[in-house]
């Protein structure tokens, strides 16, 4: 594992040096890695390695070198995050209407993830947020509207959007964070771009890393949330680890559905506790300890078969977790 990290760090350091020296060369669009994206990648690496000052420095460099700006409160007060042209995107997978994942009809990311477009989510009843997490979000936070409430409504939805959610019988806490393509409700043209990195993540990395390295991460966190999400927000934590826990809470809200949660769970050595989350199926309620092997991804069998140097090397197999009684 250390050898892997050594190689990763060597590669990203070289990438940053090369991108920094490429004066006058700009990427044609946000599908390509730029200097600020490379700083963002290295900030993620340093966060995982708990190299706090380096993570803070890289997140700051990503912000300073990027022309991206966080989505405003007005932006996030409605379904959003559908196009790399939005101001907050640093890096993403650009999707065109003619791409095969779109012309296939439903074999695409937003078909599974979106609630307001035509796709798999219409028939699987979409994705729901952890009920306990939802209840922890203040009413003054614009992000509360990213999900239906217990009455199956959201303040973020207009009349047409709410009718769509009601007609398809979406359950409470279903996400409406991600807008349909071109904001056309019920569209079957699922050509949404896929977010890989948003500038908001850099502010959250900066806040956590500053707190853990002796800086004023609390001020960074409060400034970000107050300006862009909840004007009434106050961070009540008073210790570095307390601020770190609050940043994790903010990351769970802000980056929900964007594929980063597992990395936080692993680097912070956290359990996966589904009690009180609102799972309708009792067999899906788990409290998985942080040390469980089920949280480790095994090396794929095809890779082991193809690479003789990997004989006998993979992460240990783990049995399925045992369901536990729910808390409410």
How would you portray this structure in words?
With 328 residues, the protein is mainly α. The protein folds into two domains: 2-72 and 196-270, Serine Threonine Protein Phosphatase 5, Tetratricopeptide repeat; 95-192, no CATH class. It has helices spanning 2-21, 35-48, 52-65, 100-103, 109-113, 121-124, 131-135, 159-167, 199-212, 217-228, 240-254, 261-267, 301-306, and strands at residues 89-93, 194-198, 272-273, 287-288. The two termini are 40 Å apart.
Sequence of strands across the biggest β-sheet: 1-2
The value of Rg in angstroms is 21 Å
Number of strands: 4
**Structural class assignment:** mainly alpha
Helix content: 25-40%
- Contiguous runs where pLDDT drops below 50 for at least 5 residues: none
Shape: globular
Order of helices and strands: HHHEHHHHHEHHHHEEH
Helix segment count? 13
Distance between the termini: 40 Å
What CATH first level of the largest domain would be assigned?
Mainly Alpha
**Could you say how many structural domains there are in total?**
2
The biggest sheet amounts to: 2 strands, antiparallel
